[in-house]
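Methods — Computational structure assignment.
A single polypeptide chain was analysed. Its primary sequence is given first, followed by the predicted tertiary structure written as structure tokens.
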Amino acid sequence: MAKIVYSLSGEGSGHSSRSREMITHLLKKGHTVKVASYDRGYRNLKDDFDVLEIEGFSIVSEDNKVSVGKTFLQNFTSIFDRYESINELKQKYFKEFKPDCVITDFEPMAAYLANELDVPLMTIDNQHRMRYMDFSYPLEWKADALFIENLIRVMIPRPCISLVTTFYFGKKRNDRTFLFPPILRQAVLDQKPTNGGYILVYATSEFKTLIDHIKTYKREKFIVYGFNIDKIEKNLIYKSFSREGFLNDLAGCRAVIATAGFTLMTESFYLGKPVLALPMKGQFEQVLNGLMLDDLKYGRSSLELKREDISAFLYDIPEYSDNLKSYDRKGNDAIKEMLDLMLANDCLVLNNFNEKRRTIFHVEEK
């Protein structure tokens, strides 16, 4: 059995949701797993796994737009803590634990240490589709696409294997990348969706423009999460967050209005719920999710959030629902089987890929 360092981004809840399923599978298979994360990733996993809290990168948003200044300030002020954190991670999880491999869900500290100490590095995330998978986009997004591709290269250097989750399948750019359907929580897989007629809304309390718009649709009923309050305001029912309560409301809704985060979108698709996606400005991944959503016709994307976009979405819900009947609902078995293959026989296959990666980069550096 393998000794594994599993690190994950703490930004949002999608990374921890995906990682929980993979870590649970690894432990059931008898592997020893040490987990490293921060923020929500740490809080969501610390009670169930052996988790080291590390420093990480966070994004600050206002009215569904990345605040560059506040994001820079928040991360710059923790730069010294980050230096101490990487030293602690190196000592406890690499020098003392001596892992056979590192798996990362878009967390750079463990990825850099894996490269420094020549430990095989595997990625399991949806971000690497923007580096290792072909996809189309309007010319106006070319600079953003190139920027995010290079950012991923800097964040997670030289993985020997990438297991990429995606709801849109493009051509792979190398033989070290494998594409899989999105990883879903078992609780999602177990749901029996119904149609309660209401629209589920998920947005942060800073996104006031959305609330101003949906208030005007008086014939619609909206259940709203993200404001951390419990109250009824005419046709809006606000609910504070509960993992079970939110999932039940997702399974019972007619459609979803939310930011264009990968996890909620793919859970919605699995349950047959059309999505009005509101990409966060400054996050190309969310823009890309919206473009793919439009292409597949599982819903609609609105970057500027105009009232007419909401109206058009509500009108077209029956068409989107019909399109989602053909959505591929395979679950998590395929990616688990690939993970088992990589780790079998003392990580034989993974080590072979790592040796191949070493050779490639040695030649490139010459």
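Note: The chain is about 45% helix and 20% strand.
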